[in-house]
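Can't paste images in this forum, so I'm doing it all in text. The chain is below; anyone willing to post the predicted structure tokens underneath?
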Amino acid sequence: MVNYGGNIVVLWEEDFVSSIGSIKTNIWCAEIALERLNGQGIYGKVNWCYVVLTVPKSCSIEDVLVTTF
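Text version of the structure:
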């Protein structure tokens, strides 16, 4: 999760079986805008959500490091 222009960006993995029968992993990314609702809580709106990379099952996201200025 990272701050992206005041929104948050989240990455996650999803395994699936490809058309040729091999197991692959989709890396998904979503940008979510958070807003406070009349002091009652916070809700999020998904601005976009896409598969950004498809890799063999042997690959995965191990660690993500985020830096900001």
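The first strand starts at residue 2 and ends at 4. DSSP finds no helices and four strands in the chain.
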